[in-house]
Write a structure and sequence with these properties.
globular, single chain, 4-stranded antiparallel β-sheet, 12 strands, 36% helix, binds aspartic acid, Glutamine Phosphoribosylpyrophosphate, subunit 1, domain 1
Length: 321
């Protein structure tokens, strides 16, 4: 029997506790996650592809300044927004990615266009921008991506000479000496299962506050922060990208399913344990198989996350249960 259409989203993981967010802020995050889930769900219920649904959900989160992707991306050391994004289609094994883009309004659409129309998998910087422009994608000036909240995060990171992960604004004040890897990661991502039994994954990020010019994280790297294969799983990650790159985390989950015949749940658990907990890497993943089994796993205090299946209402959560 065909599993119900399913969509999972994340908006970053980290040291998220109830004291960090006011009730009003929590509502804003929940509303945005719910909106992203509904955007993808409605496409899936109309027979749309997993790829289009995952991209649609990520677009909603890119457009929302609360998350570190698209509008609201964090700043590099030089005070610029350099964004990375990737998509992978589990049905075809096709993938597309961009890194270091500064003007593409929705980097995830550029990643999808790279996959579908460039003949390549990964375009970087000015080449990615030129391709996005030629594809007629919306471009924006730096003012569009600038948010005061992220700018203050950069000032705080510069003052401490630290590279910081996202959702640090409020928490940074509370934990001035804390290890940056112990904070919050604001990347966004989605994985989807469509009515045809196909999977897809999409991930988009501004990276890390005060990151070096040219630094690329795990999000646009196929197999690290983003991966999808119908035979195993669709995975999107968030967290300290360097650990996810070294652990090839998204593909590691799929590989444990393919070679070790582990279930999605067991594979996710094993990867989290061996590739993140064991190395000190903090963050989380959303993972989904074609039977509609899913995991929203993280080793941080919280992860902005949500799921919707079939015609049900979206479920969203932030903190550990
Ligand atoms: N994984 C992202 C990166 O390292 C950061 C995040 O998840 O917020 O670029």
């Amino acid at each position: 029997m065909q599993a119900p259409v399913t969509l999972l989203v994340h908006g970053g993981a980290g040291t998220l506790t109830r004291v960090d967010l006011s009730a009003a802020q929590e509502r804003e995050y929940r509303d945005a996650l719910g909106q992203a889930l509904r955007a993808g769900q409605s496409l899936l219920l109309q027979g749309g592809t997993a790829l289009d649904a995952a991209v649609a959900a990520v677009c909603v989160l890119e457009d929302c300044p609360l998350f570190n992707a698209g509008k609201g991306s964090v700043f590099t050391h030089e005070g610029r927004n350099e964004m990375d994004a990737a998509v992978m289609d589990g049905a075809t094994g096709q993938a597309g990615a961009v890194a270091g883009v500064v003007a593409v309004r929705n980097p995830i659409l550029a990643a999808q266009a790279v996959m579908q129309r460039s003949g390549h998998v990964f375009l970087l910087g000015q080449g990615a921008e030129a391709f996005a422009r030629a594809q007629g994608l919306a471009l924006e000036g730096p003012g569009y991506f600038h948010t005061e909240h992220r700018w203050q995060q950069l000032q705080a990171a510069l003052a401490q000479n630290q590279v910081m992960l996202d959702h640090d604004g409020q928490h940074h004040q509370a934990l001035p000496g804390a290890d940056p890897l112990d904070r919050k990661f604001g990347t966004v991502g989605a994985v989807a299962l469509d009515a045809h039994g196909h999977l897809a994954a999409a991930t988009s990020t501004g990276g890390m506050t005060n990151k070096m010019f040219g630094r690329v994280g795990d999000s646009p790297l196929i197999g690290a922060g983003t991966y999808a294969c119908d035979d195993t799983a669709a995975v999107s990650a968030t967290g300290a990208g360097e650990f996810f790159i070294r652990g090839v985390v998204a593909h590691d989950i799929a590989a444990r399913m393919a070679y070790g015949r582990l279930s999605l749940a067991k594979a996710t658990q094993a990867t989290m344990r061996d590739k993140l907990d064991a190395t000190g890497g903090r963050g989380g993943v959303i993972a989904l198989d074609r039977h509609g089994h899913y995991k929203l796993a993280f080793n941080t205090e919280g992860m902005y996350r949500g799921v919707v299946q079939g015609h049900a209402q979206p479920q969203v959560a932030i903190y550990r249960a």
